[in-house]
Amino acid sequence: MKQRMSSRFFGSCVIAGIPLTFIIWATLERLRSDYSPFRNLLGEYLVGPFSFLGTAAACLLAATFLALLVGLQLSVRPSGFLTASCVLVGVVAISLCVSAVFPMDMRPPDGSHPIITWTGIIHVVSPIRFSALLIALLLTLPGAYKRDEKWRPLARVTLFLGVFIIALQVAFILAPFDLRGLAQRGIGLVILVWLVLTGWRLRQVLPFTYGTAS
């Protein structure tokens, strides 16, 4: 019973983290009326007025991923795929925090090229690493799900979302400058949908118990 309560608790944390993150970010978008959600990247909101809200949203999403990590370890049958997936979840959470702590180099108001700093370089690398790790996670996690009967129904959905994010990443790279922000937000929306589905599943399934057939 204690294991079941723990699994439900972390599933609830994942589900609760999504609307809170969305509300914080929507508030930031509303306050930054000088930015366009179609054009401006999410990283640009981490600099300037109300940037603390962007940092809070990124850290809250990182905490949501950590709750997911613990929930998966409690609920999914142990395997090499699960171990790899949990490592990827942990590094994804770290990448989110790094992106929030090290803001990007903004272009000066006169339109000239920004001065490149180490902070900006770290920020640029972190989202790239985040995207690559997230895709690897969504392609690896179905392997763990297939080894657990309780999670098997979610394997195809997770794999589909992983392939869909790859397509959105290509769209982001090829998108015109004025639509890059929209493409990036599309990727973020898919991530939030996946987190909600996984959190909801955590609340429903029984935790894995050694010696019990899956």
Features:
214 residues, mainly alpha, Rhopdopsin 7-helix transmembrane proteins, 6 helices, 0% strand, globular
Model description:
This protein is an all-alpha fold. The protein has a single domain, classed as Rhopdopsin 7-helix transmembrane proteins (Up-down Bundle), CATH 1.20.1070. It is 71% helix and 0% strand. It is built from 6 helices and no strands. Helix 1 packs antiparallel against helix 6 and helix 4 packs antiparallel against helix 5. The longest helix has 30 residues. The radius of gyration is 18 Å and the shape is globular. 32% of the residues are buried. The model has no long low-confidence stretch (mean pLDDT 84).
Order of helices and strands: HHHHHH
The CATH class designation is: Mainly Alpha
Strand residue content: under 5%
Structure classification: mainly alpha
- Cα distance, first to last residue? 18 Å
Mean pLDDT: 84
**DSSP summary, beta strand count:** 0
Short description:
This protein has a single domain, classed as Rhopdopsin 7-helix transmembrane proteins (Up-down Bundle). The protein is 71% helix and 0% strand.
Provide the fold topology.
Layout: H1 2-31, H2 51-75, H3 80-101, H4 118-146, H5 155-174, H6 180-204
Helix pairs in contact: 1-2, 1-6, 2-3, 2-6, 3-4, 4-5, 5-6
